[in-house]
Design brief:
heterodimer, A: 107 residues, mainly beta, 7-stranded mixed beta sheet, 4-stranded antiparallel beta sheet, 11 strands, 0% helix, B: 120 residues
């Protein structure tokens, strides 16, 4: 199985900050990398697919980069509604696997 | 807008069978181009992929759970289901259903998840 490792596991930030979360795969997954946001008690929501493509309706302050084994989710200007848990997921092979999540909290 | 909703028993005894159903609204399970998936998250642990089923009934199960998992489709009720037998406390988790868009290889949407506790 492909292992996905996110860092950091958690971070504290203020509204307006720029935030970056990284995700590393144990082998090359090309651009088969998705990012999700999850708020407590809610279903995960797709933010970015194919490493860099913003899902329809997702604000442009979210962006994704990377290919191969190293990927980054960036929030350019953190908004109050962005405090949540973010996780990556590879869709290069089965079984699909996920990062452990990064909790973004209010500083 | 497609929505998924999990339902089933929230409490299962050890060694018994966990049964969950995912009801689809806003689309037909028979629409091509999708797989229908189960994913779980034990408390404090990472998301774990369980497997998928196509509307045709073809399945893929994660090898780590394959010996205990069965998935099925009910086209008449626009649902798909998960059965996990011989459960232990390690199967306690929030269980999610999700649709994978095959051409894009992402999960969207997900259900809200349902907590299943394995306890006597």
């Amino acid at each position: 199985d492909i292992q996905m490792t996110q860092s950091p596991s958690s971070l504290s930030a203020s509204v307006g900050d720029r935030v970056a979360i990284t995700c590393r795969a144990t082998q090359s997954i090309s651009n088969y990398l998705n990012w999700y946001q999850q708020k407590p008690g809610k279903a995960p929501e797709l933010l970015i697919y194919a490493a860099t493509t913003l899902q329809r309706g997702v604000p442009s302050r979210f962006s994704g980069s990377g290919s191969g084994t190293d990927f980054t989710l960036t929030i350019s200007t953190l908004q109050p509604g962005d405090f949540a848990t973010y996780f990556c997921q590879q869709s290069f092979s089965t079984p699909r696997t996920f990062g452990q999540g990064t909790k973004v909290a209010i500083k | 807008q497609v929505q998924l909703q999990e339902s089933g028993s929230g409490l299962v005894k050890p060694s018994e069978t966990l049964s969950l159903t995912c009801t689809i609204s806003g689309d037909s399970i028979s629409t091509g181009g999708y797989s229908w998936n189960w994913i779980r998250q034990p408390p404090g642990k990472d998301l774990e992929y369980i497997g998928y089923i196509y509307y045709s009934g073809s399945t893929y199960y994660n090898p780590s759970l394959k010996s205990r998992v069965t998935m099925s489709v009910d086209r008449s009720n626009n649902q798909f289901s998960l059965k996990l037998n011989s459960v232990t406390a390690a199967d306690t988790a929030i269980y999610y259903c999700a649709r994978e868009v095959l051409l894009r290889n992402y999960f969207d949407p997900w259900g809200q998840g349902t907590l299943v506790t394995v306890s006597s």
